[in-house]
Amino acid sequence: MTKNDDKLSQELEYLLASYLFENKLQMQRLLSYLVSHINSPSDLVYDQRTIARECLGRGHDFDPAENPVVRIEVGRLRKLLSLFYEEELLRPYTITIPRGQYRPEVIIESQVNKPKYLPELAPSPANPERLSVLLQFSTEGVDNTELYLLRHRLRIGITIALSRQETVRLLVAIPGENEKVADAIDFIMRVSVSSIDAGFELSSQVYAADSSKVLFQERKNLSEDYEPSQIDELLSVLVSELFDHEIGKLWRKWVIKRDAYQKVGAIKISALVRYQHYLFDENRKNVELAFLEITNALEYHPGDKILNLALADLYYRIIIHDYGLVNDPIEDGLTHVREALRFSPGSEKLHTLHALLTMFQQKYDYVVTAPIRVESPGGAKYFSSSFHYQVLKCLMSEWSDGFKQLKKLCDRFSYYPKLYPVLAYLYYFLNDERPEAEKWKMIVIQHSTDRAVRQCAKYMKLSGKWSGEEGREILLASLDKDMGRFSD
Amino acid sequence: MIDETVANTESLILASRLFRSKPQMQRLLSYLVMHTYENNNDALQQRSIAINCLGRNDSFESTKDPIVRIEAARLRKLLEAYYDADEAQQTPLRVSLPKGSYRLVFSRNIEHRQSRSFSLLLLCQSPMVMNVEEIQLMIKVRQGLSYRLNHFDHLNLSVNFHPEHEVAQRGSIHFLAEEQHDYVMRCEVVQDRNRDFLISSIVIHRLTQEILWSHSTTIIHGYTAAILDEFYLKLISPLVSDSYGVLGIHWAKSCLEMGLEYVEDQHMAAVQFINLCSEPSKIACKKFMEFLDQRLKKYPDDYNAQGSYLAIGFFDYFLNYNLMSSSLEDRLKHCLIIEKYVPHDPGILVLIGFYNFALNRYCEAEVYLNNARKLNPYNTMWEFIYGALMFFVGKKEVGFQILLRLSKYNSRPPSYYFVPIFFYYLGEKEWEKAFKASSKVTFADDLEFLVKAIAYLGVGATSQTNTEEIDISWLEKTALNDYPDLILHFNAVVKRLNLQDVDSGVQTDLK
C-alpha cells in the first residue's frame, strides 16, 4: 500500500481537531507519533520503550515489564479511533492500530464501496398510504437465454401492471440481492422461473416483510412455445389476485397492517382503510363511513391523487347502488371526476369512471366506450377494471358481448361482485329468459340490491322495443312488477 | 432571525405527537436548529451541547459521559419516525441528523426533492356550433393524447375536462391557463364539407404568448384507430419526444437565456440535460456534471438527477469525451440500484440497455431497451436509440427500418438521427445518400468533425481536417475498418456533387 503523505497528514489533522481528540494532549501526541512513523522501515520506533520516552514523558529507565502505561494508553487510543470512525462515515482513510502491534494501519476506502462520482441513491421516504412491495426474481437451476427472456417478460409485465396502480409502490430488487430488504416495505414477492420438461415452471411467493412468513404461493406451467398473450393472461390472474382493490388478498393484509394508523389520527390512511373496507363489503353503512372520511381527508390533502381516485370510485358506486348519500351524485360525481382527471390524465380507472358517469348523465353520444385499456391491447389486466369496463358496455346497450365477457371474467376468478347478479338479472330479463332471470332475481333480493337494478334501468341506454322514454317507463314498470314493490 | 419555513418546520415538529411529551428532545432539537442555522460550529461540539443544552456542568467529559451521543441517537430515530408518520406531510422541510455529526440537515420534504421539468395544459375543443361527430372525435383525441402524453415523465401534464371549456372561444386559451402552466396546447376538431375532420393544434408559451408550433391534419370521416395513432405520433414525436421536442428545447433555451441563477434548483437538471441532448458539447457536459455533483450532495435521493448524471455517460461514450472516471460496470450497477426504486422509469431502462451495449452484452441491451419501449411506447427517442443500437450490433436492416419509420413522424429530426443512416448508406454503397446524411449531422464538436472529416478526406482536402481534434473513437474505427474503400468512393461522390453544398445542409429526403 502506498500512502500519500499529504493526504495522510490531512487526515491526522482532521482527527486531532475532532472533539474526541481536541482536549487530550497525550492522545494527540501518541497518535501523531505513531502515524508519522508509519513509513519507517525500522521496528525500533514502535518499541514500547521508545514510545514511552517519546510521547509519554518517561525516562530512560522505563521498563515495560513493570509499567503497562504504553499498553494502556494505546488501548485508549484504539477505542478513540474506533469511536471516531463509527461516527465519521465518509472518511477517505481509516487509521487503525491492530491488536498486537503499535504500528498503525491505514485503509484507503475502496472506490467500489464508495463511488466518488455519485452518492448512493437514498430511498425516498416511506409513504404508508400506499402498499409497498419488493419484487425479487430468481432462476432455479441453470440459467439460459430462454429463461432470461421469460424472466424479463414477467418482470416488465408486473412492473407495467403495478405502475398502473397509483396506490402500489413497487421496488424491484437488484440482481443478486436476495435476503436484503429495503426499509418501509410491506410485502416481498418472489418470482422464480425454472426449466421443466418441454416448458417452464413459474412460482410466486409472497412474504410479509416484517415476519418473512409465507402468505401466498402459487405455481404455474408454461409450454416451451408459449405465446406472449399467455403471459398476459397469467399475469392478469397474478396481479389481480394480489393487488386488485376489490379482490386482491394483499389489500386485506394491508388493511390490518394499517389499522394502527387510525388511532393516531392519520386521516389519509384511515380514510383509505375505510374505503378498502367498503370494497370488501359493499353496503350502505360502509359506503357512508368511507365517503365521509375520504371527503374529510381531501380537505386536508386537496389534490391528492389517491384520495381523488377513491372518491371518484365512491361516487360511481353511490350512483349505481342508489345509496342516496348525496343529493345530486351524478352532477357532483362528474365534476369531481373531471377535476381528478385534470391532474391524473393518464389514469385508466378515472377514464372508465368518467365514461360511466357520462352514461348515467344519459349523454350516450359522448361516452367513449373504448376506454384507454382497449387501446393498449397487450399487458396484464386487473379484475376490477375489466369488470367495470364490461359493466359500461352492458349499460351502453352492448349486452351480448358485454355480459358474455363479464360472465367469463367472474367465472375465471370465481368472484361475483354484488353488481354481477344485478346485471345478470337485467340481461336475462331483457332477453326474456325467464328461468335464468328468476334465479338471479332471488340473489338480487337476497343481497337487497334491487335499487341498483332500478337505477341501471333508469339510466342505461336502451334499444329495440325498450327505446324511447315510453319504453323505459314500460321497462321500469315491468321490472317493478317482476320484483315486487321496492322497499324504501 | 430564523427564516419562516425553518421556524414553521420546527414548530410543527415540536407540536407533533412524537415530540409533545419529550422536553429534553424538544430542547435539543431547538438548540441544534438554532446553531445549525447560525452555522455556529463551537456550539455544535459535544461539550457545548452537554453544558448549554443538556444541563451538564463544566466538569463534563465526553469520554466518561455519553449523554450527548445517546441523546443525539434518540433524536435521530425520533426524527426518522416523525417523517414516516402521516402528520409529517404538512411539514415543509425535512430535518435530519446525519450520523457522526451534530449538525442538522434541512432539505425540502418529499416531492420537492426530485428534479422536474416544465408543465403543459392540454385543451381540446370543438367549434361553437358543433355537431355530435365533432365532439365525439374531440373527446377521443383528448383521451388519446391525455393517455399518451402522460407517459412522458419529464412533462407535467394537466388536461382540462370541463364541458364548458370544450367550446372554442376567442382567447379561451389564455384565460384557462394558470400560472403553473408553462405551455398550453390546444387541439380543435372541425368537420369540413366532405364530413372529414380537420384537427388543428397550436402550442403557446404562456408567458410570452408566443406561438411555438401549429399544425393541422385531416382525418378522414371513417377514421380507424391506426389513423389516430399516426396522428398522435406526428404530434408527440416532434413536440415532446425527440431530444425532448420543440417544447423541451424551447423551455431549456428560455431558461438558459434568463440566466441559470434565476432557474429554480429543481429545474436545473432538466434544463441542462435537454440542452445537452439538442446540442451536445464537452463543455456543457462538464458544467452539467459539476452542477449535479453539488445537487446530489444536497439531495442524494433525487433519482432524476442521478439518472441525468448517468445519461451523460451516453455522450461521454459516443462522443469520446472521457469525462467520467468510473468504470462502465460501476455505472451499470448504479443504474440497477436506481431501477430498484423507480422500476417504472423507462429512461433508466434505456440507460441500463446502453451500458450493457457498451459492455458488449447485446442480448441484455436488447431486452432492457425493449422493456423501456414497452413502458413508454410513444417515445420516439427511445425508439431511435433502440433502432440505432440494433443497427450497430449487427441487426442492420431491423435498425434501419425503425429509423426510416421514425423519420415519417418528425420532418426535422435531431441531427444525430442521421449518424446511423450515414453508416447504413455507406454500407449499401449509396454514396450520394450517405453524403447527404453526413451533411445533416451538425454537432457542437467531435462527431460533426468526424463525419465531416470522412467527407473531406474523401475529396483529398486533408488540410481542412483538424486531425488533432479527432480521437480514434469507436466511430472512426468502425468507419475505417468496415469501409476501407471509403476514400475512393468519396472522391467519386464529391466530384458529382457540387462541393459548395457540403455545409449548406440542403433539404434532402431520407429515402
Q: For this structure, what is the CATH homologous superfamily of the domain at 119-239 in chain B? A: TolB, N-terminal domain
Number of domain modules of chain A: 4
Number of helices of chain A: 20
Helix content of chain A: 40-55%
Summarize the structure.
The complex is a heterodimer of chains A (488) and B (511). Chain A has 488 residues and is α/β, with parallel strands linked by helices.
Can you tell me about this structure?
The complex is a heterodimer of chains A (about 500) and B (about 500). With about 500 residues, chain A is an alpha/beta fold. Chain A folds into 4 domains: about 5-110; about 130-245, 3-Layer(aba) Sandwich (Rossmann fold); about 245-390, Serine Threonine Protein Phosphatase 5, Tetratricopeptide repeat; about 420-490, no CATH class. In chain A, about 55% of the residues lie in helices and about 10% in strands. Chain A is built from 20 helices and 7 strands. Chain A has helices at about 5-15, 25-35, 50-55, 70-85, 145-165, 230-245, 250-255, 260-265, 265-280, 285-300, 305-320, 330-345, 350-360, 370-375, 385-395, 400-415, 420-430, 435-445, 450-460, 470-485, and strands at about 95, 105-110, 130-140, 170, 185-195, 200-210, 215-225. A 5-stranded mixed β-sheet of chain A has the order 4-3-5-6-7. The termini of chain A are far apart. The model of chain A is unreliable at about 110-115 (pLDDT under 50). Among the domains of chain B are: about 5-110, no CATH class; about 120-240, TolB, N-terminal domain (Rossmann fold, 3-Layer(aba) Sandwich), CATH 3.40.50.10070; about 415-510, no CATH class. In chain B, about 55% of the residues lie in helices and about 10% in strands. Chain B has helices at about 5-15, 15-20, 25-35, 45-50, 65-85, 130-150, 170-175, 225-240, 245-260, 265-280, 280-300, 305-320, 330-340, 345-360, 360-375, 380-390, 395-410, 420-425, 430-440, 445-460, 475-480, 485-495; strands at about 95, 105-110, 120-125, 155-160, 185-190, 195-205, 210-220. A 5-stranded mixed β-sheet of chain B has the order 4-3-5-6-7, with helices on one face. A two-stranded antiparallel ribbon of chain B has the order 1-2. At the A-B interface, α5, β4, α9, α12 and α13 of A face α6, β4, α12, α13 and α15 of B.
